[in-house]
C-alpha cells in the first residue's frame, strides 16, 4: 500500500466512525436520475427527430432531470434572438423545453461559461477579482433573460453555475475571491427568482485529503449560500481511482449534512484518451466500460439522497453515436433490468 493509499484508508476509517446515516436507499441498483448536457454549435445541425430520440432515450433510462451545462458559451447564446441582431445565437433551449415538458422531465439551466476560465483565473488576484465581477454581471443578465422566457415552464428546475471548482486553484487566498463571486451570483439569482435554487460543481485533484476537503466544502458552501454541489468523481479523467473515491464522497456527504445543502455525486461515464495530463493533444474521450461505471455507481449510491448524475449520457451513451456508446447503453439497460 502506498503512503497516499494508507492516508486515504485512515481518513476513510475516521470519516466512517463519525458518519451520519446515509441517504434514503432506492430500490434496485444505484442508477442515474440526472445527466449533464453540453450545448454545442453542432446541435444547430440536428433535425427535430434527433432531439426527440435523445429525450425518449433519456426518459427510457430513467433520467428525470437534465443539467444544461451552459446557456451561453463564450459569445454563443443557446436561445433565440428575436431582434435578429445576434448572429451567434442558436435557438436550442426553445427546442429543449417542450421536449422536457412532454416527458415530465426538468431542466436545470447553466449560465455563462467562458472557455478561457482556466487561463483567466490563473492571473493575479486583483485581475481575477475584476474578471469574476464581470462574469457575475454577465451571468445575471443572462439569467434575467432566461427567466423572462422560460420562467413559467413546469420543466424549469433551477440554476447551475458552469464554473467548475477544484481543490488546488481555490484553496488558499483565492478562496475569498471565489466565495464573493458565488455569493454574489447566488444572491442575485435569489433576487431575480426566489422560487428556484442554484448549484455549482467541482472536482478533486487529491491535493486535499478527505478531512480537509470536508472543511473546504463546509466553508465554501456556507459562504456562498448555494443549495447544491455536484461532485465529479474524477474517475474518467483519472484524477481519482475507484479505491481513492469513497473517502472523498464520505467527506462531501458529511459537509452537506452539516451545511444543509444537497450533494449530487457525478459519475463520469467516459474514459479520457487524449489531453492533459496524458499528452498535449486536445481533450478526447470514449465511452467507459459498464463494469467500471457499475463500480462508480456503487460508490456514489450511498451518498446520493437526490440521485446520481451522469457526465454525460447524451455524449457517451446514445445508441446512434457509435459502437462503444451503443454498447454502454445496452449494458446499462441490462444492469437496470438485472438489478446488479
Quick overview of this protein structure:
It comes from Fundidesulfovibrio magnetotacticus. This protein is α/β, with parallel strands linked by helices and 340 residues long. Helices cover 44% and strands 19% of the residues.
Supply database-style keywords.
signal; alpha/beta; GH; DUF4434; TIM Barrel; three-stranded mixed beta sheet; DUF4434 domain-containing protein; disordered N terminus
Structural classification: alpha/beta
User: Span between N and C termini?
Assistant: 29 Å
Low-confidence stretches: 1-25
The CATH topology turns out to be: TIM Barrel
Helix-residue proportion: 40-55%
Topology as a string of helices (H) and strands (E): HEHEEEHEEHHEHEHEHEEEHEHH
CATH class: Alpha Beta
Computed over alpha carbons, the radius of gyration is 20 Å
The CATH superfamily turns out to be Glycosidases
The dominant shape is globular
Query: What is the tally of beta strands?
Result: 13
